[in-house]
Amino acid sequence: MNRLSLAHLTVLDVGPPHLIPLAAQAGFRAVGIRLCSPMPGGIAYPLRAGSPELRATQRLMEAHDVVVSDIEVVRIAANTRVDDYAPAFEAGAELGARRVGINIDDPERARAIDCLGSLCDLARPFGLALDIEFMIWRPVARLEDAVDIVKAVGKDNAFVLIDALHLIRSGGTVEAVAALDPALIGSVQLCDAPIESPPPSAIIDEARGNRLLPGEGNLPLLALLAALPKDVPLSVEVPLAHEPHSAKRAALLRQATDQLLQDSARPLI
Fold first, then answer.
1. Mean of pLDDT over the chain
2. Residue at 40 is within a domain
3. Is 181 among the domain residues?
Protein backbone atom coordinates (compact mmCIF):
# COMPACT_ATOMS: atom_id res chain seq x y z
CA MET A 1 0.00 0.00 0.00
CA ASN A 2 1.28 3.48 -0.87
CA ARG A 3 2.35 5.84 1.88
CA LEU A 4 0.96 9.34 2.26
CA SER A 5 3.87 11.77 2.54
CA LEU A 6 4.20 14.85 4.72
CA ALA A 7 5.56 17.64 2.52
CA HIS A 8 8.34 19.49 4.29
CA LEU A 9 6.84 22.94 3.71
CA THR A 10 4.12 22.02 6.22
CA VAL A 11 6.70 21.84 9.03
CA LEU A 12 9.65 23.65 7.52
CA ASP A 13 10.73 24.87 10.95
CA VAL A 14 11.74 21.29 11.79
CA GLY A 15 14.60 19.68 9.93
CA PRO A 16 16.10 16.21 9.87
CA PRO A 17 16.65 14.17 11.89
CA HIS A 18 13.90 15.57 14.18
CA LEU A 19 11.46 15.66 11.26
CA ILE A 20 11.24 11.87 11.29
CA PRO A 21 9.78 11.28 14.79
CA LEU A 22 7.53 14.33 14.39
CA ALA A 23 6.04 12.84 11.24
CA ALA A 24 5.67 9.41 12.82
CA GLN A 25 3.92 10.83 15.87
CA ALA A 26 1.39 12.54 13.59
CA GLY A 27 0.75 9.28 11.74
CA PHE A 28 2.86 9.81 8.62
CA ARG A 29 5.10 7.04 7.36
CA ALA A 30 6.71 9.09 4.59
CA VAL A 31 8.18 12.59 4.38
CA GLY A 32 9.72 14.96 1.89
CA ILE A 33 12.92 16.72 2.87
CA ARG A 34 13.94 20.17 1.66
CA LEU A 35 17.64 19.73 0.95
CA CYS A 36 17.80 22.84 -1.26
CA SER A 37 15.95 26.15 -1.09
CA PRO A 38 13.84 27.36 -4.04
CA MET A 39 14.98 30.92 -3.35
CA PRO A 40 18.24 32.56 -2.27
CA GLY A 41 18.44 32.62 1.52
CA GLY A 42 15.43 30.35 2.01
CA ILE A 43 15.22 27.61 4.61
CA ALA A 44 16.83 24.32 3.65
CA TYR A 45 18.57 21.41 5.35
CA PRO A 46 21.52 20.46 3.10
CA LEU A 47 22.30 16.96 4.34
CA ARG A 48 25.28 15.34 2.72
CA ALA A 49 25.80 11.66 1.98
CA GLY A 50 27.71 9.94 4.76
CA SER A 51 27.34 12.84 7.21
CA PRO A 52 26.50 12.23 10.89
CA GLU A 53 23.20 14.09 10.40
CA LEU A 54 22.19 11.87 7.51
CA ARG A 55 23.14 8.71 9.40
CA ALA A 56 21.10 9.90 12.39
CA THR A 57 18.17 10.52 10.07
CA GLN A 58 18.48 7.00 8.66
CA ARG A 59 18.48 5.48 12.15
CA LEU A 60 15.30 7.31 13.04
CA MET A 61 13.71 6.34 9.73
CA GLU A 62 14.32 2.69 10.54
CA ALA A 63 13.17 3.04 14.15
CA HIS A 64 9.91 4.77 13.20
CA ASP A 65 9.23 3.00 9.88
CA VAL A 66 9.27 6.31 7.99
CA VAL A 67 10.65 6.62 4.46
CA VAL A 68 11.80 9.67 2.50
CA SER A 69 9.58 9.93 -0.54
CA ASP A 70 11.18 12.94 -2.20
CA ILE A 71 13.71 15.73 -1.89
CA GLU A 72 13.30 19.35 -2.91
CA VAL A 73 13.68 21.98 -4.27
CA VAL A 74 15.94 22.02 -7.30
CA ARG A 75 15.67 25.45 -8.88
CA ILE A 76 16.34 26.00 -12.57
CA ALA A 77 17.38 29.60 -13.13
CA ALA A 78 19.30 31.33 -15.89
CA ASN A 79 22.58 30.79 -14.04
CA THR A 80 21.96 27.28 -12.69
CA ARG A 81 25.01 25.01 -12.64
CA VAL A 82 23.74 21.47 -12.95
CA ASP A 83 26.66 19.81 -11.17
CA ASP A 84 25.95 21.87 -8.05
CA TYR A 85 23.02 19.54 -7.38
CA ALA A 86 25.07 16.33 -7.41
CA PRO A 87 25.55 16.34 -3.59
CA ALA A 88 21.79 16.72 -3.04
CA PHE A 89 21.03 13.88 -5.45
CA GLU A 90 23.60 11.67 -3.74
CA ALA A 91 22.11 12.44 -0.32
CA GLY A 92 18.59 11.85 -1.62
CA ALA A 93 19.55 8.46 -2.99
CA GLU A 94 21.21 7.53 0.31
CA LEU A 95 17.98 8.44 2.10
CA GLY A 96 16.00 6.25 -0.29
CA ALA A 97 14.15 9.09 -2.02
CA ARG A 98 12.70 8.39 -5.44
CA ARG A 99 11.61 11.84 -6.59
CA VAL A 100 12.90 15.43 -6.77
CA GLY A 101 10.75 18.55 -6.82
CA ILE A 102 11.74 21.04 -9.54
CA ASN A 103 10.92 24.77 -9.77
CA ILE A 104 11.74 26.64 -12.97
CA ASP A 105 12.54 30.35 -12.73
CA ASP A 106 14.31 30.73 -16.07
CA PRO A 107 12.06 32.70 -18.45
CA GLU A 108 13.94 31.40 -21.50
CA ARG A 109 12.10 28.15 -22.21
CA ALA A 110 14.71 26.54 -24.46
CA ARG A 111 17.50 27.11 -21.94
CA ALA A 112 15.34 25.73 -19.12
CA ILE A 113 14.61 22.60 -21.15
CA ASP A 114 18.32 22.07 -21.84
CA CYS A 115 19.08 22.47 -18.13
CA LEU A 116 16.31 20.08 -17.16
CA GLY A 117 17.65 17.49 -19.57
CA SER A 118 21.09 17.72 -18.00
CA LEU A 119 19.57 17.42 -14.52
CA CYS A 120 17.66 14.32 -15.62
CA ASP A 121 20.92 12.77 -16.80
CA LEU A 122 22.61 13.69 -13.52
CA ALA A 123 19.75 12.22 -11.48
CA ARG A 124 19.33 8.96 -13.36
CA PRO A 125 22.25 7.04 -11.78
CA PHE A 126 20.79 7.90 -8.38
CA GLY A 127 17.41 6.41 -9.31
CA LEU A 128 15.69 9.78 -9.05
CA ALA A 129 12.78 11.11 -11.08
CA LEU A 130 12.31 14.86 -11.53
CA ASP A 131 8.84 16.36 -11.05
CA ILE A 132 8.21 19.81 -12.58
CA GLU A 133 5.94 21.99 -10.47
CA PHE A 134 3.97 24.84 -12.02
CA MET A 135 2.99 28.04 -10.15
CA ILE A 136 1.13 31.05 -11.47
CA TRP A 137 3.91 33.48 -10.48
CA ARG A 138 6.71 31.55 -12.19
CA PRO A 139 7.57 31.15 -15.89
CA VAL A 140 6.18 27.62 -15.74
CA ALA A 141 2.81 28.90 -14.59
CA ARG A 142 0.22 26.34 -15.73
CA LEU A 143 -0.30 22.64 -16.14
CA GLU A 144 0.09 23.01 -19.90
CA ASP A 145 3.49 24.68 -19.45
CA ALA A 146 4.80 21.82 -17.31
CA VAL A 147 3.44 19.20 -19.71
CA ASP A 148 5.02 20.94 -22.69
CA ILE A 149 8.40 21.04 -20.95
CA VAL A 150 8.27 17.37 -19.94
CA LYS A 151 7.40 16.37 -23.49
CA ALA A 152 10.08 18.63 -24.96
CA VAL A 153 12.86 17.32 -22.71
CA GLY A 154 12.08 13.75 -23.73
CA LYS A 155 13.62 12.05 -20.70
CA ASP A 156 12.11 8.99 -19.07
CA ASN A 157 12.67 10.41 -15.58
CA ALA A 158 10.93 13.77 -16.15
CA PHE A 159 7.34 14.20 -14.94
CA VAL A 160 4.76 16.78 -13.89
CA LEU A 161 3.99 17.61 -10.25
CA ILE A 162 0.39 18.71 -9.66
CA ASP A 163 -0.28 20.83 -6.58
CA ALA A 164 -4.03 21.20 -6.01
CA LEU A 165 -3.75 24.88 -5.07
CA HIS A 166 -1.54 25.82 -8.00
CA LEU A 167 -3.77 23.89 -10.39
CA ILE A 168 -6.86 25.89 -9.48
CA ARG A 169 -5.15 29.26 -8.99
CA SER A 170 -3.60 28.99 -12.46
CA GLY A 171 -6.97 28.37 -14.09
CA GLY A 172 -6.50 24.62 -14.41
CA THR A 173 -9.27 22.06 -14.06
CA VAL A 174 -9.73 18.50 -12.93
CA GLU A 175 -10.93 17.73 -16.44
CA ALA A 176 -7.54 18.81 -17.80
CA VAL A 177 -5.82 16.47 -15.36
CA ALA A 178 -8.12 13.59 -16.32
CA ALA A 179 -7.30 14.17 -19.99
CA LEU A 180 -3.55 13.84 -19.44
CA ASP A 181 -1.56 10.77 -20.29
CA PRO A 182 -1.27 9.24 -16.79
CA ALA A 183 2.38 8.44 -17.49
CA LEU A 184 3.17 12.18 -17.37
CA ILE A 185 2.06 12.60 -13.74
CA GLY A 186 4.90 12.08 -11.29
CA SER A 187 3.36 13.18 -7.99
CA VAL A 188 0.53 15.20 -6.48
CA GLN A 189 0.35 17.58 -3.51
CA LEU A 190 -2.94 18.05 -1.68
CA CYS A 191 -4.27 20.99 0.33
CA ASP A 192 -7.43 23.05 0.42
CA ALA A 193 -8.42 26.70 -0.05
CA PRO A 194 -11.42 28.86 -0.93
CA ILE A 195 -12.34 28.46 -4.56
CA GLU A 196 -12.13 32.23 -5.00
CA SER A 197 -8.60 33.40 -5.69
CA PRO A 198 -7.07 36.09 -3.47
CA PRO A 199 -5.82 39.28 -5.12
CA PRO A 200 -2.60 38.85 -7.11
CA SER A 201 -0.57 40.49 -4.34
CA ALA A 202 -1.63 37.74 -1.91
CA ILE A 203 -1.19 34.67 -4.12
CA ILE A 204 2.31 33.83 -2.90
CA ASP A 205 1.42 34.41 0.75
CA GLU A 206 -1.51 32.04 0.41
CA ALA A 207 0.66 29.32 -1.08
CA ARG A 208 3.44 29.65 1.49
CA GLY A 209 1.46 30.08 4.68
CA ASN A 210 -2.31 30.39 4.33
CA ARG A 211 -3.58 27.16 2.87
CA LEU A 212 -6.41 25.21 4.47
CA LEU A 213 -6.62 21.63 5.68
CA PRO A 214 -8.33 19.21 3.29
CA GLY A 215 -12.07 19.58 3.78
CA GLU A 216 -11.89 23.14 5.10
CA GLY A 217 -12.09 24.79 1.69
CA ASN A 218 -13.74 24.34 -1.67
CA LEU A 219 -11.06 22.92 -3.96
CA PRO A 220 -12.33 19.90 -5.94
CA LEU A 221 -10.11 17.43 -4.08
CA LEU A 222 -12.36 14.38 -4.37
CA ALA A 223 -12.75 14.94 -8.09
CA LEU A 224 -9.00 15.41 -8.44
CA LEU A 225 -8.28 12.17 -6.59
CA ALA A 226 -10.76 10.35 -8.81
CA ALA A 227 -8.99 11.67 -11.91
CA LEU A 228 -5.53 10.51 -10.85
CA PRO A 229 -3.77 7.22 -11.51
CA LYS A 230 -4.30 4.92 -8.54
CA ASP A 231 -0.60 4.52 -7.80
CA VAL A 232 0.50 8.17 -8.09
CA PRO A 233 2.56 9.32 -5.08
CA LEU A 234 0.55 11.68 -2.87
CA SER A 235 1.76 14.19 -0.31
CA VAL A 236 0.03 16.86 1.73
CA GLU A 237 1.42 20.38 1.83
CA VAL A 238 -0.40 22.74 4.16
CA PRO A 239 1.75 25.38 5.84
CA LEU A 240 -0.44 26.96 8.51
CA ALA A 241 0.94 30.34 9.52
CA HIS A 242 -1.63 30.65 12.31
CA GLU A 243 -0.55 27.41 14.06
CA PRO A 244 2.85 27.88 15.77
CA HIS A 245 3.31 24.27 16.88
CA SER A 246 4.76 22.07 14.15
CA ALA A 247 3.63 18.79 15.75
CA LYS A 248 0.07 20.04 15.94
CA ARG A 249 0.18 21.21 12.31
CA ALA A 250 1.23 17.75 11.20
CA ALA A 251 -1.35 15.99 13.37
CA LEU A 252 -4.21 18.20 12.18
CA LEU A 253 -3.17 17.63 8.59
CA ARG A 254 -3.07 13.85 8.96
CA GLN A 255 -6.51 13.77 10.59
CA ALA A 256 -8.08 15.94 7.89
CA THR A 257 -6.42 14.02 5.06
CA ASP A 258 -7.48 10.66 6.46
CA GLN A 259 -11.09 11.82 6.24
CA LEU A 260 -10.56 12.95 2.65
CA LEU A 261 -8.98 9.63 1.70
CA GLN A 262 -11.79 7.74 3.40
CA ASP A 263 -14.31 9.73 1.39
CA SER A 264 -12.37 9.00 -1.79
CA ALA A 265 -11.93 5.29 -1.03
CA ARG A 266 -8.21 5.67 -1.77
CA PRO A 267 -6.37 3.84 1.05
CA LEU A 268 -2.94 5.14 1.99
CA ILE A 269 -0.89 4.41 5.08
1. 97
2. yes
3. yes
Q: Residue 1 pLDDT > 80, yes or no?
A: no
Measured CA to CA in angstroms, residue 91 lies from 24, 121, 124, 244, 261 at distances of 21, 17, 14, 29, 31
**What number is the average pLDDT over the span 45-59?**
97
pTM, whole model, 2 decimals? Answer: 0.96
Q: Looking at the 3D structure of the chain, how many domains does it have?
A: 1
269 within some domain: no
Look at residue 39 in the predicted model and tell me its pLDDT: 87
241 is in which domain, residue-wise?
5-264
Q: How confident is the model at residue 241 (pLDDT cuts 50, 70, 90)?
A: confident
Residue 96 Rama label (left phi>0; alpha psi -120 to 50; beta): left
Nearest of 257, 229, 260, 223 to residue 30 by alpha carbon: 257
Task: Report, as an integer, the average pLDDT of 109-117.
Answer: 98
> Residues with Cβ < 8 Å from 75, sequence gap 6 or more?
36, 37, 38, 39, 102, 103, 104, 105
Q: What is the mean pLDDT of residues 84-97?
A: 98
Task: Over range 236-261, report the average pLDDT.
Answer: 96
Q: Domain of 43: which CATH number?
A: 3.20.20.150
